[in-house]
Design goal:
With about 240 residues, this protein is mostly helical. The protein has ten helices and six strands.
Length: about 240
């Protein structure tokens, strides 16, 4: 949820949402679980708080205390969703620990990393990154679902995930590529604008601005918003 994401320092902006980033969201989830365990001193309560929210669990425990009911998970008055959520996690743990008891054959997963975190030091279009890695666009997006735009903007903490072999191919192809890596540039809007006013200023197509920035008809762009603009083919480096 947005409040939890902010608390866990997950980035949410025009270009990415780290709540959907495989590595960052997993790290944040583990950090939050550890924090909740310290707060409640019990894994069942921590898991309930992870799903229902720590404030709700605290209020429910406070109600139990006032009624002089033991403050345990079993005595927690929870919504149905949370009542199902916690046992599901323990059921999955049990199945993974003893699949033979439940007549389940689990896939053989190698004890080795599947993907690599690859820094992005040059702004690159998503489709170009997938092409350089030798991946389909669908497979690339499935590994990088936190990206909100068709471009990955370079930055100190910017990265993409690629399967190990595809990461090697990506670096090799990137080093020899002569063509432009991106057909976009980004600007920060200084005053209230419309796609049409930006199109006139930058001499690009307004419909294209709306498309790549997912803007509705009639919307005004607020000052401080980062907007993607297509670079005319003759101006690309």
């Amino acid at each position: 949820m947005p409040v939890a994401a902010k608390h866990l320092n997950l980035v949410r902006d025009e270009f990415k949402d780290e709540r959907r980033d495989i590595v960052r969201s997993t790290q944040a989830a583990l950090d939050l679980l550890e924090e909740l365990h310290k707060q409640f001193g019990d894994w069942n309560l921590a898991l309930a708080a992870y799903n229902w929210g720590p404030g709700n669990v605290s209020r429910a425990l406070g109600g139990n205390a006032r009624r002089k009911v033991a403050n345990t998970y079993d005595n927690l008055a929870m919504p149905v969703e949370t009542q199902i959520f916690v046992p599901k996690l323990f059921a999955i743990r049990e199945i993974i620990a003893r699949p033979e008891v439940y007549k389940i054959t689990l896939p053989d997963i190698p004890d080795a990393p599947y993907f690599e975190v690859v820094p992005v030091t040059k702004t690159i279009d998503v489709k170009v990154a997938a092409e350089l890695a030798g991946m389909s666009l669908t497979d690339f997006i499935n590994l990088n679902p936190g990206l909100n735009k068709p471009v990955v903007v370079a930055g100190a903490n910017q990265s993409i995930l690629l399967p190990i072999e595809q990461a090697k191919k990506y670096r090799a192809n990137l080093n020899v590529r002569k063509e432009a890596l991106s057909e976009f540039t980004s600007i920060t809007v200084e005053a209230s604008e419309t796609p049409e006013s930006l199109a006139r200023t930058w001499q690009v197509d307004a419909a294209r601005i709306r498309q790549i920035n997912q803007l509705r008809w009639g919307v005004r762009i607020k000052p401080g918003t980062i907007v993607l603009l297509p670079i005319p083919s003759g101006q690309r480096p």
